[in-house]
Amino acid sequence: EKVLFPGDTLTKRDVADYYTAAMPWLLPEIAGRPLSVIRCPGGIASACFFQKHHTAGMTLVETVRLKEESGSGDYLVVNDAAAALELVQFNALEFHPWGAHADAPDIADRVVFDLDPGEGVSWPDIVAAARHVRELLKQLGLQSFVRTTGGKGLHVVVPLSPGADWNVVKPFAHAFAQGMVQLEPLKYVATATKKFRKDRIFVDYLRNGRGATSVASFSLRARAGAPVSMPLRWEELGRVKSGDA
């Protein structure tokens, strides 16, 4: 009965029911990958926190030991629906996987461009930017897919098969973002600094590094209205009214 989304009177049971229903689509997004979650023990109106390491009491969630900048840590890994729902039992609302699998953490198998609008940017501008990214990637022979973030923006996701080392993928993503800025400097920015982002779209390439994460398709967001990150067909994008529709 615990209310997790107070403005919408959505309870922990509602969250569990949603994830149970969405599991056939969510699980392929997160299974076998190092995973971070956003946990909200008191609901979204109270303090939430980002967790990437295993914690006492979890019996179904597995772990992978990975090197960090200093030492190593036991990262969360979900391999089945029961483990995902155990994280929901621990009040996890959001799922954020790596762009690599736990058994090959140094090999990226997807690139994610997060189009994050600054103040003054309209939704049609973001849709146009996503289509622009798609066309530029096509010119490089790369197929891409689009999803809402459940927030303000859109993700353009490029699966890689075979995968590539992070030392290749991150510089590529950075150069791609900088190239967009050079093409249209009044539309795009490739730096996270807030003061440069008014009326521009931040082409966030920073999710493409070892240890970086991005929200999974079909994950809830810990925000009013309980929006979901939703993958779309490109032809559906024009019918969506916002990133948290």
Write a short abstract of this structure.
The protein is 26% helix and 27% strand. By secondary structure, the protein is an alpha+beta fold. The strands form 3 sheets. It has a 6-stranded mixed beta sheet. Strands 3, 4, 5, 6 and 7 form a 5-stranded antiparallel beta sheet that branches.
Question: Explain this structure to me?
Answer:
The chain has a 6-stranded mixed sheet with strand order 11-12-8-10-9-13. Strands 3, 4, 5, 6 and 7 form a 5-stranded antiparallel sheet that branches. A two-stranded antiparallel sheet has the order 1-2. It has 245 residues and is an alpha+beta fold. The protein has helices spanning 12-30, 81-89, 123-139, 166-183; strands at 3-5, 10-11, 34-39, 49-51, 62-67, 72-77, 92-97, 107-117, 145-148, 154-165, 188-189, 201-204, 231-232. The longest helix has 19 residues, at 12-30. The mean pLDDT is 96. A hairpin with a 4-residue loop joins strand 1 (3-5) and strand 2. It starts with a strand and ends in a 13-residue tail after the last strand. It contains 4 helices and 13 strands.
| Main sheet summary | 6 strands, mixed
Record the strand order, biggest sheet.
11-12-8-10-9-13
Helix content: 25-40%
Q: Average pLDDT, to the nearest integer?
A: 96
| Helix and strand pattern | EEHEEEEHEEHEEHEEE
Termini separation? 26 Å
Class by helix and strand content?
alpha+beta
The value of Rg in angstroms is 18 Å
Q: pLDDT below 50 for ≥5 consecutive residues: which ranges? A: none
How much β-strand is present in the residues? 25-35%
The total count of helices amounts to 4
Number of strands: 13
From the spread of the alpha carbons, the general shape counts as globular
